[in-house]
């Protein structure tokens, strides 16, 4: 694969022109975008990150509705991007197609599974891109590549024409370098006529979650808090210990709490239990979706993916009903906490992107902390946006804002408003 000017982001390049008349006023004209190799595009095989999958599946007879919507809105598609095999990783390394090069830090992973989509945006190869986020596959690479990544409310955008990983969590997400394009794309995909400005009622800073992260507290305080105070006043900022709130208000978690080991350097037991429930349900649904194909074809899978798939194939139905109960209870608990227009502030991931080919045990600890954070929106079905802060020690860091299910338009507008203030406090020029 060519890895020079395209940063190894693409599986295949082609041109899909806008569907509408070139003279029409279209919301995404003249933007360009790239598509994760998990979406159907008429005349092409969705490769799912694995050559054996591509070899054993037919070309698509129609294009996924999300891709068609972007083309109708005036955007031009320039190709399909590399992804982690079977969308089953947050790392971004692929032994078959190569690892897309992180444009912020060439010696670090780009994050997965929507790795190529994030790299294409971060490297300025396209204006925006689309991917999927099941366990964190838009939020993680957005953070690692220093760009915006949006995971919408679960079921807010059609996943028709998208290869499933685990339907309880699958979402179509997107990447952009600035919040204005992020919103323009969101309005098309979410079918919002316009974003109605609504000020947040509260921004809850999850203190314990930031202890899972290597982001310096004073940096968040200096940049984000000051931007919030200038825009909305200091009273809007609230502190919370999210782990305790979740433990108290999600009673079905007790089953997974009892299973958690406590030998990690630092964890939040209730959020680690959320992560366990999410990953168990994900394994079970992956088995139902793809277990038969894996057993019959015996595909060549890379390290990490192979073990994960094997674990999934051994999953039984036991405790799956409890996982669904946890989803419902968490949704209700966070709805009560945030109300209609409250926002939760958390780190997107525990820190900057890990080095390429990191030690497996070191990576597992980071991964465990990452999923404690990622499972909050994953299990609740809430929308989340990853916002790049700045480079710290020459590596990208980010924060995330989480809003209730269905508040996607509100969250997109909030990011647009807040990011100008964040840039000002960080000493960056305003747009």
TrEMBL record:
Domain Amidase: 24-178
PROSITE patterns: AMIDASES (PS00571)
Entry's Gene Ontology molecular function annotations: hydrolase activity, acting on carbon-nitrogen (but not peptide) bonds, in linear amides
Family from the record: Belongs to the amidase family.
The name this protein goes by in its record: Amidase domain-containing protein
Source organism of the structure: Lupinus angustifolius
